[in-house]
Design a protein that fits this description.
Layout: H1 2-49, H2 54-71, H3 74-90, H4 94-108, H5 114-130, H6 134-148, H7 155-170, H8 174-191, H9 194-210, H10 214-231, H11 234-250, H12 254-271, H13 274-290, H14 294-315, H15 319-380
Helix pairs in contact: 1-2, 1-3, 2-3, 3-4, 3-5, 4-5, 4-15, 5-6, 5-7, 6-7, 7-8, 7-9, 8-9, 9-10, 9-11, 10-11, 11-12, 11-13, 12-13, 13-14
Length: 381
């Protein structure tokens, strides 16, 4: 009776312990889930502001990166790195853009997160297009195409068309660039994606400007300006005002060009888009030379020189090429490790197959011996 009572008491304590562990685990899981949701919401906030306020996007993404690292949330770490890549690209800080882009790519490549994988490839491609490294940019775009067929996101092909159009524009393949713009627009307009539609309109405005078709360039630039204001894309709006100034200058409307440049400079200074700032000050200098005001033109060219020094330090310190080399080396090491693991698994499988074969042969031998024994016993009987 005492043994039964003792057993019953032990079972009660065991039941309470199991319940405690279950509640603790459930609480811990709920806390991790809540933390993950909070970090993801912050990342979404950073995505929504990086084209309007890149510095705010960088601040938020750095915060989420720290939180996600502490919680060991791999997806959010990669997503934070991706946002930092895009936000630094918006400021023309290509060194940090590539650094964070490669870090994000390491997490998402060969993973189940296909859209994020493609976005990382496109982000790096865009950065290398701006760096005028079309060879590397094309490699990333080609890789994005090979991955994109696994995606169910309707906009993914359009995003690739959009970046390919810029690459072709920089290579002066204007007809092909327009073709890719139109292919992207069909999808974006169908999905009512006004943010990206405005970017493609701006792209077409640039292409027609290069083709010296200023009427069409102005038409698409006006459409781009309207949508940029609507979606509050200050970076794109600054570029659109710059294109408007270029068109005005080419159509002998220098005062209008100065007006648009003033707006462009204000926006690009706020965003920190050094590339467009340089082009805007250069155009402003040209216009003031035409207007016979060399002193103002000289001041503008001094600003151009200072900005180019800043951009040179961001681009040409060798770290971008170094980061690319490190990424390629790590990719090769990862491939080698995967092959080594596959070889180990293959060898283990072969060893297991040999052991199974030996086991089956032994079983067959024993079974044969057993049958023989029973047969002999049967004869004796």
């Amino acid at each position: 009776m005492n043994y039964k009572l003792l057993l019953f008491t032990c079972l009660q304590y065991l039941q309470k312990y199991i319940l405690f562990v279950f509640l603790f685990a459930t609480s811990a899981f709920a806390q991790i889930k809540n933390d993950s949701l909070y970090i993801h919401q912050l990342n979404e906030k950073a995505v929504n502001v990086y084209l309007y306020k890149p510095d705010s996007g960088i601040t938020i993404a750095n915060q989420t990166l720290r939180l996600a690292t502490d919680q060991k949330l791999k997806y959010e770490i990669g997503y934070s790195q991706y946002i930092l890549s895009k936000a630094n690209w918006a400021k023309a800080n290509y060194r940090l853009s590539t650094q964070h882009g490669f870090e994000a790519l390491k997490i998402f490549e060969n993973s189940i997160y296909i859209d994020e994988w493609v976005n990382c490839l496109l982000s790096l491609a865009r950065t290398f297009i701006d760096l005028r490294n079309t060879t590397v940019a094309r490699e990333f775009l080609t890789k994005a195409i090979s991955v994109a067929h696994k995606s169910s996101n309707t906009n993914t092909p359009a995003d690739i068309y959009r970046e390919f159009s810029l690459l072709l524009l920089n290579q002066h393949q204007y007809d092909s660039a327009l073709l890719y713009c139109d292919k992207a627009l069909v999808i974006y307009e169908k999905e009512k994606d006004t943010l990206t539609t405005s970017i493609v309109y701006g792209r077409k405005a640039r292409i027609y400007y290069e083709l010296k078709d200023y009427t069409r360039s102005l038409y698409y630039n006006k459409k781009s300006l309207i949508l940029d204001k609507l979606v509050n894309n200050r970076r794109a709006l600054g570029v659109s005002y710059f294109i408007a100034a270029q068109i005005a200058d080419k159509t002998n409307k220098q005062d209008s060009a100065i007006y648009f440049l003033t707006k462009s400079l204000k926006l690009n200074e706020a965003v920190g888009n050094i590339g467009t700032l340089i082009k805007s000050h250069e155009l402003m200098a040209d216009i003031y030379i035409q207007k016979g005001k060399p002193d103002i033109a000289t001041s503008e060219l001094k600003l151009v020189s200072q900005l180019k020094d800043t951009l040179y330090n961001l681009e040409k310190n060798g770290q971008i090429q170094e980061m690319q080399s490190i990424y390629e080396l790590e990719t090769k090491d990862k491939t080698i490790k995967l092959l080594e693991q596959e070889n180990v698994i293959t060898n283990q499988r072969r060893a297991s197959d040999r052991l199974l074969l030996i086991y089956l042969l032994i079983c067959i031998a024993l079974l044969s011996a057993l049958i023989l024994v029973f047969w002999r016993i049967r004869i004796i009987q």
